[in-house]
Amino acid sequence: MADSTPAPTSSPTIEPRPALRILLAAPRGFCAGVDRAIQIVELALAKYGAPVYVRHEIVHNRYVVDTLKAKGAIFVEELAEIPQTDQPVIFSAHGVAKAVPAAAKARNLFVLDATCPLVFKVHFEAERHHREGREVVLIGHAGHPEVDGTMGQLPIGAVHLIETIGDVERFTPKDAGQLAYVTQTTLSLDDTAAIVEALKQRFPGIIGPHKEDICYATTNRQNAVKAIAPKIDCLLVVGAPNSSNSLRLVEVGARAGCEKARLIQRAGDIVWQDLEGARTIGVTAGASAPEVLVDEVIAALAERFDIVVEVVSTAEERIAFNIPRELRQPAA
Predict the structure, then answer these.
(1) pLDDT tens for each residue of 23-49
(2) What are the two backbone dihedrals, phi and then psi, of residue 281, each rounded to the nearest 5 degrees?
(3) 20 to 30 A from 22, CA-CA: which of 13, 28, 108, 296?
């Protein structure tokens, strides 16, 4: 009699996930100025209700902007897009030219200014130098809202924008003995140092800021990337394509030893081919990227790899900025 016992079936083999070490840079993500700006919008919505109008993206991050839109914020590029209203009108963290608050005042708009205090510092420096009879050089990127705001503190022609060492070589001031420079707060430390050195070589008497204009958060995030870049096969920078500080992190990572430095807005932007064969990668976030997006990226990596996360900390940040007093007062 034949054996009717069915032959044993082999269970499918589950391929082990490749191991991946993640060096998580710290500090990363929100700086004090970004945190303050977002708080201003959220507190204004809580106190005055929707809508709250915001001129320009409050910070350069689509996730943040969309989250605030869902709560009742309306984003515009110019004041002319805002109807006559008693509701708050908020200026973004990047700062604005003097003409903008003047136009808001002429319309009796209720303004809450979310300009980062460190950007205000650059404005004050530029104005002081101008008052004291100096031509002002601004090191920065043309078209960035922070640059537009700083140049807009002074009369047209009083500020000269310098983007490269080549611009330094072509620049001819009215009086080489009466020059001062300020910088955008979100630049590459190394690039800016090279431009400053070129300015000092050409114009030895040029006056710089009492304290570095590049903000503490930009400095700390770039230094953190420099610390991990030589040890990793790929760097993922969470940030927006219009975020200056995020773009600089990509550049810094590539220069510091990680050729595969990539900017991603969210986990869905990861190019998985970049990680083929990678054993160690780095993850960081620009100063306007929320930590929830970093968590999302790590969760996506955990679905494909057997991950070990190591935090690499190069500085501690304990800075916080006050919110406008209108938002510190209880609602009527």
Answers:
(1) 999 999 999 999 999 999 999 999 999
(2) -125, 160
(3) 13
pLDDT digits (tens, 9 = 90+) for 188-220: 899 999 999 999 999 999 999 987 778 999 999
**Inter-CA distances, 298 with 47, 125, 230, 293, 304, Å:** 35, 41, 21, 9, 10
* Helix residue ranges, H only, 263-320: 291-304
Mean pLDDT in the chain?
A: 93
Q: Which domains does the chain have, with CATH numbers?
A: 19-30+216-313 (3.40.1010.20), 32-116+319-328 (3.40.50.11270), 118-202 (3.40.1010.20)
pTM of the shown model: 0.90
Number of C-beta neighbours around residue 8 at 10 A: 6
Long-range interactions of 158-164: CB distance < 8 A, separation 24+: 158/130, 159/126, 160/135, 160/136, 162/137, 162/138, 162/195, 162/199, 163/139, 164/195
Among 146, 276, 310, 326, the one annotated catalytic: 146
pLDDT digits (tens, 9 = 90+) for 87-129: 999 999 999 999 999 999 999 999 999 999 999 999 999 999 9
Among 64, 63, 99, which Cα is nearest to 80's?
99
CB-based contacts of 192, cutoff 8 Å, min separation 6: 139, 183, 214
Q: Is 291 a catalytic residue?
A: no
